Amino acid sequence: MSAAPALHRSIPARPRALPMAADTGTAVAPILAAEHVSLRFGGVRALTEVSFEVRRGEVFSIIGPNGAGKTSMVNCISGRYRPTEGRIRFDGADITRVPTRKRAAVGIGRTFQNLALFGHMTVLDNIMVGRHHLLKHGFWTGMPYWLGGAQQEEIRHRREVEEIIDFLEIQHVRKATAGTLSYGLRKRVELARAVALKPKLILLDEPMAGMNLEEKEDMARFILDLNEEWGMTVLMIEHDMGVVMDISHRVMVLDFGRKIAEGTPEAVLADPHVRRAYLGEADEVVHDLDEPVTA
Q1: pTM of this prediction?
Q2: Is 1.10.3720.10 the CATH classification of the domain at 1-107+200-211+232-290?
Q3: Which residue among 11, 62, 156, 269 is the one 20 to 30 A from 133 at the CA level?
Q4: pLDDT greater at residue 115 or residue 192
Q5: pLDDT exceeds cutoff 90 at 282
Q6: What is the DSSP string of the chain?
């Protein structure tokens, strides 16, 4: 099986070394652990006994066919779904029953497969929404102190949001209405809003779906910089195997809600079970991956 095509502009060659502890050279402790997670909707099993760990400082990708349970797994992590069985630990704490609204506060941000921006609001205001849980002054507490703490807090948050806007190269649309932007720019704005949460772990649900090659290359570069320069751990669902091969440290494969493989991108793509389940290969047939794989 041939290697998936690499993104060719400014994306470093892969594979990348896994994050290691500087003092011992041992693997970094996980920031996220899913332990025997199962999810049922009536008689339908979306996930069955799925266990994995995401190490602090890595890019971890989840792949699999449509209906494999990828988004269901991310929804369990973000709190949108509560596992029927099993538990999820984040930064050492059990968050299985922590409400969705509180998971941003513990350091989990996410984007959505289908855009979830406020189309009538400006780009700047959409991103500022991501700072809401970080604000210490509300309406009543802020009024008496507007000339003091609340005003300074507002200035500080706007300054940090402007840094995110510069980083994602959307300065030219910062005052534009989000609903008027191109699809690729709206995807970038949604990423900016998730970054504005200042997450330790960012969940990206198909961040490059529907993009052309240039937009994918830009998004891949931004994700790598978030990981390597901003220190964010990334869990990503992605169908484009070129992207997965280029930017992931490790990959997990789901099929019909069960984990069938986990490891480096090269090892996973060479696994015969993955080739049959994800690529639809018969044992004696080898397909070429020169074209991006979508499922």
Answers
A1: 0.82
A2: no
A3: 62
A4: 192
A5: no
A6: -PPPPPP-SSPPPSPPPPPB-TTT-PBPPEEEEEEEEEEEETTEEEEEEEEEEEETT-EEEEE-STTSSHHHHHHHHHTSS--SEEEEEETTEE-TTS-HHHHHHHTEEE--SS----TTSBHHHHHHHTTGGG----HHHHGGGTTTHHHHHHHHHHHHHHHHHHHTT-GGGTTSBGGGS-HHHHHHHHHHHHHHT--SEEEEESTTTT--HHHHHHHHHHHHHHHHTS--EEEEE---HHHHHHH-SEEEEEETTEEEEEE-HHHHHH-HHHHHHTT---TT-----SSPP--
